[in-house]
TrEMBL record:
Task performed by this protein: Involved in base excision repair of DNA damaged by oxidation or by mutagenic agents. Acts as DNA glycosylase that recognizes and removes damaged bases. Has a preference for oxidized purines, such as 7,8-dihydro-8-oxoguanine (8-oxoG). Has AP (apurinic/apyrimidinic) lyase activity and introduces nicks in the DNA strand. Cleaves the DNA backbone by beta-delta elimination to generate a single-strand break at the site of the removed base with both 3'- and 5'-phosphates.
Family per similarity comment: Belongs to the FPG family.
All residue ranges annotated as the Formamidopyrimidine-DNA glycosylase catalytic domain in the record: 2-114
Highest taxon of the lineage: Bacteria
Protein name as annotated: Formamidopyrimidine-DNA glycosylase
Taxonomic path: Bacteria, Bacillati, Bacillota, Bacilli, Lactobacillales
InterPro entries the UniProt entry points to: DNA_glyclase_Znf_dom_DNA_BS, FPG_cat, FPG_Glyclase, FPG_N, H2TH_FPG, Ribosomal_uS13-like_H2TH, Znf_DNA_glyclase/AP_lyase, Znf_FPG/IleRS
MF annotations from Gene Ontology: oxidized purine nucleobase lesion DNA N-glycosylase activity
Binding site for DNA: H92, R111
Short name of one Pfam family: zf-FPG_IleRS
Keywords: DNA damage, DNA repair, DNA-binding, Glycosidase, Hydrolase, Lyase, Metal-binding, Multifunctional enzyme, Zinc, Zinc-finger
Keyword ATP-binding annotated: no
Protein EC: 3.2.2.23, 4.2.99.18
Active site: P2 (schiff-base intermediate with dna), E3 (proton donor), K59 (proton donor), R263 (proton donor)
Organism of provenance: Candidatus Enterococcus murrayae
Length: 277
């Protein structure tokens, strides 16, 4: 958390708030947030840079400046907060971008896991984390034949395989649970045991769930807000995640929660049976 739909919503919020703004100063309060270059160089190179746009790849944000690109990964609880005038910082405010018009963009991260990397223009695509990503979960990028081949090569349980970002980008714990429920697949089912028909159904479920979640502005669990300070509302459409004990909306069987690869996992024991190989 945040996952792809939440990051997409942050991207849209940032475009509406900071696109076209020019940086006057950058303050860094937690150095580990900056992967590279060195802090002083990071701060210096961004002075005078204008934000041309903000893209997204998987769960990564890519800020396009006049001469540089910044890759930003929010990890567990990172978020950007925009203010139209200076405000006192709290202990979770780690990077502050001050614009020439006096407005500010502050990177806030309770767990300090988020990272930023500044690269020369056109080089973000060479960033290691981006190079390892699978296709975006949209129809035109997410090829069925390649997906089938990838799953056939792996005996890993389907849930952790979908979480690793190399098969398809952007899926996290919430949406994998929802996707597997929709596709009627047990999260512990080995990937190479899925039939061609089931893989086809899984691909459709991934595209559908992510598209709906993006449209809803993401899912608000605990205190997640996007860059506009708004909460997503896809949580109102969750079928299994966080629904332990509630009747399955498809068959009425109570949803259960188990551990799969150390991750809390929600499923319907009737709709999502583990099939023997």
């Amino acid at each position: 958390m945040p996952e792809l739909p939440e990051v997409e919503t942050v991207r849209k919020g940032l475009i509406s708030l900071v696109k076209g703004k020019t940086i006057a100063k950058v303050d860094v309060y937690w150095p580990r947030i900056i992967e590279f270059p060195e802090i002083e160089i990071f701060q210096q190179q961004l002075i005078g840079e204008t934000i041309e746009t903000v893209d997204r790849r998987g769960k990564y944000l890519i800020f396009h400046f006049t001469h540089y690109e910044m890759v930003s990964h929010l990890r567990m609880e990172g978020k950007y907060e925009y203010f139209d005038q200076p405000r006192p910082l709290d202990k979770h405010s780690h990077v502050r971008f001050i614009f020439t018009d006096g407005t500010e963009l502050i990177y806030h991260d309770v767990r300090k896991f988020g990272r930023m990397a500044l690269l020369k223009k056109g080089m973000a695509k060479e960033y290691k984390g981006l190079l390892q990503l699978g296709p975006e979960p949209i129809d035109e990028d997410f090829d069925l034949l390649n997906f089938k081949q990838q799953l056939k090569k792996s005996s890993t349980m389907i849930k952790p395989l979908l979480l690793n970002q190399k098969i398809v980008a952007g899926l996290g714990n919430i949406y994998v649970d929802e996707v597997l429920w929709l596709a009627k697949i047990h999260p512990e089912q080995p990937a190479d045991t899925l039939s061609a028909q089931t893989v086809r159904r899984l691909r459709v479920a991934i595209i559908e769930v992510i598209a709906k979640a993006k449209e809803a502005g993401g899912t608000t669990i605990r205190t997640y807000l996007n860059a506009l300070g708004e909460a997503g509302h896809f949580q109102q459409e969750l079928h299994v995640y966080g629904q332990t004990g509630i009747p399955c909306s498809r068959c009425g069987t109570p949803i259960i929660k188990i551990k799969v690869a150390q991750r809390g996992t929600h499923l319907c024991p009737h709709c999502q049976k583990l099939k023997k190989v």
